[in-house]
Amino acid sequence: MGAYILRRLLLVIPTLFGIMVINFVLTQFVPGGPIEQVIAQIEGRGDVFANISGGGGGETTEAMDAGGDTAGYIGARGLPPEFIRELEVQFGFDKPPLQRFLLMMWDYIRFDFGESWFRSESVVSLVLDKLPVSITLGLWSTLIAYLISIPLGIRKAVKDGTPFDTWTSGAVIVGYAIPGFLFAVLLIVLFAGGSYFRIFPLRGLTSDNWEELTLIGKVLDYLWHIALPVIATTIASFATLTLLTKNSFLDEIKKQYVMTARAKGLTERRVLYGHVFRNAMLIVIAGFPSLFIGVFFGGSVIIETLFSLDGLGRLGFEAAVARDYPIVFGTLYAFSLLGLIVGILSDITYVLVDPRIDFGSRG
């Protein structure tokens, strides 16, 4: 097993490198880079020029009135070439793409993610600031999905073909078919003062008087605020995990060893949880890394926006729109690395659930 883990860890390096290469190359062909973003801001707000160049308002007016070559940037007509070159140096575009990529990877290997180009704050600080929202949505959504879906999936497998299985399948399919953001709007309309009841708050993770509350009051206030966004985030993963668990158990129940165990006089509970459970849960465990990374760090931009939650999903979307590449590539590198590590932990969990699995025996 140790040799297998070592091989997987070594594979992390080329895999992560390939992810970064592909995304870096794609960004070279995407129009509207950071320099174009600055130019667009200048056209809308004159003071942006001063913030970028470090000059005053007089320099802004002179630059806007000046002419000359602007290196072919869209919308840069009327800006002096000196200003464009200054932007290129500031953003690192005065270097060849290969050199920029290698310098970026050297920094990332040392976990130096630099600073945001447009927020004047380090990428690590921004991520840590948005992380509580993603932890809240991801942790609670994953926990609730597993606590409800696995028992429900087992029950559906045991009661396969009965009325219970039929109506729960209908409810699960409806939940899967409704997009999370649409379900979030429905919850807001019904329970957050939209048109009917005002039971839950609409904004933020805590109330304004959070610091004045007791410990129990803070816990209740926190749960009160996260109830609706967590339910909206959980709905899709809940449906998928329930059907996955049911189908996995049905497949195992039909196998010969289950019939043999029943013929020996074992109780149905002993058969299900002593034999079937261990084998059936393997496929559920296999889907854990993608569910964990997708829910925990992916974040729903629309749900975060609807509930006024400033999380990683919203941060990533805004960074992509603004072409804030330090945030885009820094978070991509960190979360890709985490996803690959979680995949290795998933294989280790396989062995813990079923010791018969031996990855170390693979050639």
Automatic annotation (TrEMBL):
* Gene3D superfamilies reported in the protein's UniProt record: MetI-like
What is the topology of this protein in the membrane according to its UniProt annotation? Multi-pass membrane protein
Keyword Transmembrane helix on this protein? yes
Q: Where in the cell is it found?
A: Cell membrane
Q: Spell out the InterPro entries in the cross-references.
A: MetI-like (IPR000515), MetI-like_sf (IPR035906)
Q: Which residues cross the membrane?
A: 9-30, 131-152, 173-197, 222-245, 280-307, 327-353
Q: Where is the ABC transmembrane type-1 domain?
A: 131-350
Q: Which UniProt keywords apply?
A: Cell membrane, Membrane, Transmembrane, Transmembrane helix, Transport
Family (UniProt)? Belongs to the binding-protein-dependent transport system permease family.
Q: What is this protein called?
A: Microcin C ABC transporter permease YejB
